Amino acid sequence: VADSQLTSVAGTCARARPLWIDGDGNPLGAQVERAVDSARVPALLLSASRRGDGLSLRGRLGLERSMLWASARAVVQLLAVGSVLGYLLDPDRPIALATSWVVVMVLVAAITIRNRAPEVPGVFWLGLASVGLSTALGLALLFVLGIFPLEGKTIVPLAGMIVGNAMAATIVAARRILGELTDKRAEVEARLALGL
């Protein structure tokens, strides 16, 4: 076999598209995996619900209806959030969409803080400020230093981690401060009377 024939065959093989690659150059296996993974979540939730129902029936707890409702609601919520995130994380979408999602996450976190620590006066605004500032500063630091590329697929998950941790810390701190002030009310009033 001549060298020119080998070069010709090699060039033809390089130009040929393998059967496992679709017309856009994406591997078909990845599409199948995504479809299987998206079907696994509802199946696992329903399976867990059925097991819980069985335990509830065996123990005569009467929780079957509420467990089934919670499982159905979880499936719907996961599918809804998954479809929104799939839309937001598309590389062709503008970064402004991902940023607007982060703003929504911060607002929901502030509402959650208000609902979990209602005894703290003005906790919504404190939560909004603390979660908003920590998210803004954390994301700015990560992107300005070039640790992560400024893309929707990095903004949303990083913001989710920062918002979740800031929300939990704000709830704990608000409850702790209020508890300490309630327990040591006399001491606080005495210090205020002395001008300290």
Describe this structure in a few short sentences:
The protein is mainly α and 196 residues long.
Description of the structure:
The protein is mainly alpha-helical. Helix content is 79%, strand content 0%. The chain has seven helices and no strands. Helix 2 runs antiparallel to helix 3 and helix 5 packs antiparallel against helix 6. The chain is flat. About 9% of the residues have low confidence.
List keywords for this structure.
single chain, 79% helix, 196 residues, mainly alpha
* Distance between the first and last residues' Cα: 96 Å
User: Gyration radius, to the nearest Å?
Assistant: 27 Å
Give the mean pLDDT: 79
**Beta-strand content estimate:** under 5%
Level of helix content? over 70%
Low-pLDDT regions: 5-21
* N to C succession of SSEs: HHHHHHH
Q: What's the shape?
A: flat
Structural class: mainly alpha
Strand count, sense and barrel status of the largest sheet are: none
| Number of distinct beta strands | 0
The number of helical runs is 7
What's the helix and strand layout?
Layout: H1 3-15, H2 28-59, H3 64-88, H4 95-116, H5 123-144, H6 152-183, H7 185-193
Helix pairs in contact: 2-3, 4-5, 4-6, 5-6
